[in-house]
Amino acid sequence: MPDRRRWFQTTAIVYPNSRPHIGTAFEKLGADVQGRYRRMEGYEVFFLMGNDENTVKVSKRAAELGLEVQAYCDDMAKQFRQVWDALDIQYDTFVQTSEPRHHRCAQKFIQQVYDNGYIRKDAYEGWYCDGCEAFKSERELAGGKCPLHANLEPVRRSEPCYFFELSKFQDWLLEYYDENPEFIQPESRRNEIIQLIKTEGLQDVNITRRGEDWGIRLPFDPEFTIYVWFDALLTYITGIGYGADEAEFAKWWPCDMHFIGKDITRFHCALWPAMLKAAGIAPPRRVFGHGFVYKKNEETGVLERFSKSLGNVVEPMEIVTKFSSEAFRYYFLRECPFPSDGEFGWARFAEVFNADLANNLGNLYSRVVTLVTKNYDGVLDGTAGQKPRAIEGCTLPTTVDSVRAHIEACRYNQALEAIWRQVLDPANQYADKQAPWKLVKTDKDAAKAVLFDLLEPLRATCILLKPFLPRSAETIYTSFNFATPWADVSFADAAEAQPLNEDLRVLAQLDAGKVKPLFPRIG
RNA sequence: CGCGGCGUGGAGCAGUGGUAGCUCGCCAGGCUCAUAACCUGGAGGUCGUAGGUUCAAAUCCUGCCGCCGCAACCA
C-alpha cells in the first residue's frame, strides 16, 4: 500500500489539425468524471492532457492557412483549452509536444532506448507515392494506385531509417497482459489485442522520418526526426517530469489510467509498454479504450461517423452555447456507454434532458424548496440533530456502493441510472404518497417530517452527482445548510445521514418563493 | 475461412440457464406542492433465423441471414 493514495490519469494526445468535435470531448469527459471522483475519494490526482503537434499533417495545415507552424499550434492549443474549460474538464496540465521541454525529454528517452540496444538503423522499403511524398501500405494501394493520385504510378523505394525492435517484446507483452488482467479495459478490447498479437505478431517499427523540418530531431542522427507516434506517447512521461524532475516523475509514474479511443489501443497496449520497457521504465497500470460517439442522421436515422466530408460535425461549443455544459455532460455520460459506442441526435438530446434533468431531478428540487418555503418560511424547526427516516425503495448505502463500482469501471451510464432509479424515483414516489401539501393542513409537524425525509435523497444525489454535474450538484446542495461543506463531501457522506447542528433551512435565492428552474425544459 | 462487435415490444437499452425488465413514446385514471411537471394502471415482444444440448435457453453449441467497426481529412 502506498502511503498516500495518488491517481495519475491521461487522455489521448490530440492532433490539432481541426477543432475538437463531440467525440474528442467524450473522452475528456469520461476521464474528468474519474478524476473528480478520485479527488472526492481522497486521492491526490494528476490529470494530463495535451496536443500532438509534431506531425506533418499539422505543418501542412498551418501552411495552408499561411501561418507559422508554432503560431498555428499555439492558437489551436488555446482553442482546445477553451473548449475543455467550457466543459469543466478539470485537468492539471496541458502538454504541447512542440514545447522545448517535451523535445528535450523525448530526446533523452530515445537516446536511452538506443543505448539499451533496441533501436537499429536499417532500410525501409516500400511503395512510394510521389504525389503524397510518402510511403503507402499495401492496403492503401489496393488496386495498385494511390487513391489520391491515380494518375501516378507508385514506385518501389528504399531509404535508411531507424527501427524500434518491437518484435523483441512480444512474449513479454503477452505475459504482462496475462499477469495483469486489468491492464486493458474493457475486456472485449483486451481480447481483441491479445488475439491480434497472437495471430499477426508484432513487427519492428520505423520510428523516424527524413527530410522534415518540423518535429523532434533524433539525438544520435540529426538528419532524422522522430515519427509522431513514438514522440506523442512520450507526453505521458515528459508531462510529469521525466528527464527534468525525477522526484516528480517518481511520484506519479506508473500511470493509473490512460484513457484512449478504441482505435488506438494497439499503440497504447503494445508499442507504449514496450517502449517503456526498452528504456527501463515500468509499464502503465491500466489502459481504457472507450467507445465512439456516432451522429444520428435526424432524417434517415442512420448512424454516421463524424466527418468533414459528410458535413455532420457537431462542435461541443454548439451544445454548450445552446444549452449548458451540464446538459452536455449529462447527455453523453448517461446516454453513451463509455466502454462501448453511443450516438448523438438533437431529438434524443432534448428527450433525455427533459425526462431526467428537468422533470425528475430539477422538478424534485423545486417542489421541495417551494413546500418548505411556503409552509415553513424556509426553516424546518426542530430538525437540528435529527436523522431523516428511510424512504421506501431507497437504500442509500447499497446505492452508493454500486455507483462507486460503476464509476471505477467507467460504466458512467449505469452509475447515473442507479442514482435516478434508486434514489430520485423513490423520492418522487414518496412525495406523492405522503402528499405533504395536503398533510400540512391537518398535521403540520407530520408534513414537516416528510419534507425533512425528502431532503435526504436530494442531499445524497448531489454528492453522487458531484463528479458528473459539478455545477448543478453544487447549486442544489448549497441551497440548503447541510452539515458538511460542499468542498469536503465524499461518497461515504452520501451513504449515511449527517445530523445538523442547526435547523434545516433553505438558503437558495428565491424569486416570489420559487427557485429559478435549474434545467428549463427544452422545446 | 483476416480479427472483432451487434441483431430483445414503436425508439433506445438491461438482462450469460429457472416466472421477459428499464427509460422515452402511446392509452386510461389520480393528484395539484412542483419546470403542463409528479404518481398509479394498461396496451405492445413466440428475445434475427434454422437446428442442437438440457428437466429448463434471450442466456450454452452449430449453421445461416442481416448490420457495423478495425485499412482512407476523421477519436
Strand content: 5-15%
Secondary structure: number of strands: 17
Shape: elongated
Tell me the helix content: 40-55%
**Helix/strand class:** alpha/beta
The residue ranges in which pLDDT falls below 50 over 5 or more consecutive positions are none
Biggest sheet: strands side by side, in what order? 3-2-1-11-12-7
Calculate the mean pLDDT score and round it. 90
Q: How much is the radius of gyration in Å?
A: 27 Å
Main β-sheet description: 6 strands, parallel
Number of helix segments? 19
Terminal CA distance: 52 Å
What do these coordinates show?
The chain is of the alpha/beta class and 523 residues long. Helix content is 47%, strand content 14%. The chain has helices spanning 22-40, 56-64, 69-86, 100-115, 170-179, 187-200, 228-233, 235-238, 246-252, 265-278, 316-322, 325-335, 346-376, 396-408, 412-434, 436-442, 444-465, 470-477, 491-495; strands spanning 6-11, 44-51, 93-96, 119-129, 134-136, 155-164, 184-185, 205-206, 208-210, 224-226, 257-261, 287-290, 293-296, 303-304, 342-344, 379-380, 504-505. The strands form five sheets. The chain has a six-stranded parallel β-sheet, sandwiched between helices. It has a four-stranded antiparallel β-sheet with strand order 5-4-6-8. Helix 1 links the parallel strand 1 (6-11) and strand 2 (44-51). Helix 14 runs antiparallel to helix 15 (412-434). 42% of the residues are buried. The model has no long low-confidence stretch (mean pLDDT 90). The protein binds one RNA strand of 75 nucleotides through helix 1, helix 6, helix 13, helix 15 and helix 16.
